Amino acid sequence: MQQSYIFAVMKYVAEINVMPHKNLLDPQGKAVSGSMAAIGLPQVSNVRVGKHISLEIEALNENEAFQKADEACKKLLANQVMEYYEISIHSI
Amino acid sequence: MQQSYIFAVMKYVAEINVMPHKNLLDPQGKAVSGSMAAIGLPQVSNVRVGKHISLEIEALNENEAFQKADEACKKLLANQVMEYYEISIHSI
Question: Which A residues 11-30 touch B at CB under 8 Å?
């Protein structure tokens, strides 16, 4: 007897934050921090600036989508010497 | 009778995403999308790249902190002609 399987490929969205490591200087953040007082917002401090990346992934399940997003971060999106990343996955 | 008030200033963290408008071209995102197949991830598409900014705000309450973050976005962090922003506030 022949069996056939149907694998439903789902679409997921990964929201990724790539930020400079907390113990590294962040010149862009420092510049923004310095400007805050000048625009009337002295209550703002400790600004850190990184990247936000959203992407769509085709995968069989959420776990596989996370693996793909993690691979994309490691290989391309983040420089792990200077940056760390956070991934959140949701289906669409 | 004299009354005195003590206002407790709280510290909040604002996590801000500044992204290119969905109907605008995002050359950096397009470049990343194009590279995904080359690094063995053809399942990834529709990459959009923006900024993630975290900052600390001193304020009396969460609502005031949100107002300050919103002001910072409008005045400095986002170019509203080309970008939109999302703010999430939590206390520390």
Answer: 17-19, 29
Note the pLDDT tens digit of each residue in A4-39.
777 789 999 999 999 999 999 999 999 999 999 999
Cβ of residue A52 closer than 8 Å to a chain B Cβ: yes
State the ipTM, two decimals.
0.87
- Domain extent for A44: 10-91
Domain count, chain B: 1
Q: What is the CATH number of the domain that holds B71?
A: 3.30.1280.10
Q: How far is B53 from chain A (nearest CA, A)?
A: 5
Q: How would DSSP label each residue in chain B?
A: ---------EEEEEEEEEEE-TTS--HHHHHHHHHHHHTT-TTEEEEEEEEEEEEEEEESSHHHHHHHHHHHIIIII--TTTEEEEEEEEE-
